[in-house]
Amino acid sequence: MKPDLFEAPDYYLLDELLTEEHKLVRDAARSWVKRDVSPIIEGYAQRAEFPRQIIGGLAEIGAFGPYIPAEYGGAGLDQISYGLIMQEIERGDSGVRSTASVQSSLVMYPIYAYGDEAQRKKYLPKLASGELMGCFGLTEPDHGSNPSGMVTNFRDKGDHFLLNGAKLWISNAPFADIAVVWAKNEEGRIHGLIVERGMEGFSTPETHNKWSLRASATGELIFDNVKVPKENLLPGKSGLGAPLGCLDSARYGIAWGAIGAAMDCYDTALRYSKERIQFDKPIGATQLQQKKLAEMVTEITKAQLLAFRLGQLKNEGRATTAQISMAKRNNVEMALNIAREARQVLGGMGITGEYPIMRHMMNLESVVTYEGTHDIHLLITGADITGFNAFK
Ligand code: TGC
Ligand code: FAD
């Protein structure tokens, strides 16, 4: 792969809206991605392997629990810093950002928000340092967009719970030490349980043959009469709103992350357009290529403004689920469109692993589907503005 010469577009001088802390956090993540992710990520994606050696670096830049308080090992940062970290990591690769999103928003967040003090103390510091890695089991083979229909269940056996069922498409599953699993009790009420690797009857087979997110490990969670200690139930919240609350946080991170992937594609295409000569002039001097590049930077700028304002609302505790859906949907589609256009600017070179564009494009096909599909987010906006729920 070519050396990483990335320069971030900032057409509307958004850096002026960031605090010194935001810029320090962002720049540390940016430098780490250039040094430790860019040089190796193409090879790992080609081999469909997760680069485990980056776990320590992710922890060091504060990517595991950016907004979790420092007393539990988190970085104690605000939501804009969290977003900027996700942006920089996804600039490197969406799969690496997935690992960080899952660890932070889908494992640490539910333990922090719904767990008791003993659970927080037991798990959060080790998750923040990367000593423990986690995954989040909501999706099932027959229940993806509609998780309320889940069949995974647990039964009270007096001194423990007995867990049965299966989860599919679970990021980090093949190597995770713990899983936050959503399952129904005897009354059909959804609860979160912390399942630990090594519990008898718990297995995590890897999902192969992915053309997308190849540097992220995806797998199943199988529960065959797993005895889960009662103290592993998250006591603070139950019902579908509990896992959906975690998704709010992860989807917010993705709204920022997608900007990173888009910026990398735009920056690569812009540089290539100035260097590639056809018909005796740089292709960047032709109107058609300029149209592509001008539209890309316009869309990136709009997405940056959307994410920044959402971050302000999130910092104030005022961001709604529907606002988060709009940003996730818009920014991922924006990134996917930019990846497709940028790929064309590079002509044949665009399909090779010499440049990051094709990898970003393939990754974004997962990002547009997970954490709520593109259409599901449209329906969330539709329900919010009309008051009519069109899901059912
Ligand atoms: P609905 O009736 O709308 O809601 C059920 C209950 O939940 C409450 N609620 C929320 N609470 C907190 N936060 C939210 N965001 C909430 N949204 C809804 C709601 O008020 C209600 O509470 P109550 O007390 O009245 O019961 O639920 P529904 O069954 O109609 O479903 C709505 C729908 C379709 C929007 C929801 O199911 C959905 O979002 N589906 C998409 C599923 C999804 O996104 N799955 C993601 C799996 S995790 C993943 O993909 C990780 S990839 C990570 C990576 O690698 O980066
Ligand atoms: P389906 O729900 O079957 O949807 C198929 C199509 O039907 C979609 O286009 C959808 O928009 C559409 N559709 C569904 N319902 C409606 C409706 N009411 N109206 C109109 N259209 C509709 N899940 C986890 O729990 N944890 C993870 O860590 C995780 N990681 C993932 C990693 C990867 C790489 C991938 C691909 C997925 C991951 N997922 C994870 C699962 C992901 O959240 C689901 O794939 C997603 O929610 C969609 O579910 P589904 O694939 O079953 O599609």
UniProtKB/TrEMBL annotation:
SUPFAM superfamilies: Acyl-CoA dehydrogenase C-terminal domain-like (SSF47203), Acyl-CoA dehydrogenase NM domain-like (SSF56645). The keyword Flavoprotein applies. Its EC number is 1.3.8.6. This is glutaryl-CoA dehydrogenase (ETF). Pfam families: Acyl-CoA_dh_1, Acyl-CoA_dh_M, Acyl-CoA_dh_N. Residues 19-131 form the Acyl-CoA dehydrogenase/oxidase N-terminal domain. Its cofactor is FAD. It catalyses: glutaryl-CoA + oxidized [electron-transfer flavoprotein] + 2 H(+) = (2E)-butenoyl-CoA + reduced [electron-transfer flavoprotein] + CO2. InterPro entries: Acyl-CoA_DH_CS (IPR006089), Acyl-CoA_Oxase/DH_mid-dom (IPR006091), Acyl-CoA_Oxase/DH_mid-dom_sf (IPR046373), AcylCo_DH-like_C (IPR036250), AcylCo_DH/oxidase_C (IPR009075), AcylCoA_DH/ox_N (IPR013786), AcylCoA_DH/ox_N_sf (IPR037069), AcylCoA_DH/oxidase_NM_dom_sf (IPR009100). Keywords: FAD, Flavoprotein, Oxidoreductase, Transit peptide. Residues 238-383 form the Acyl-CoA dehydrogenase/oxidase C-terminal domain. Belongs to the acyl-CoA dehydrogenase family. Residues 135-226 form the Acyl-CoA oxidase/dehydrogenase middle domain. It comes from Robiginitalea marina. Pathway: Amino-acid metabolism; tryptophan metabolism; Amino-acid metabolism; lysine degradation.
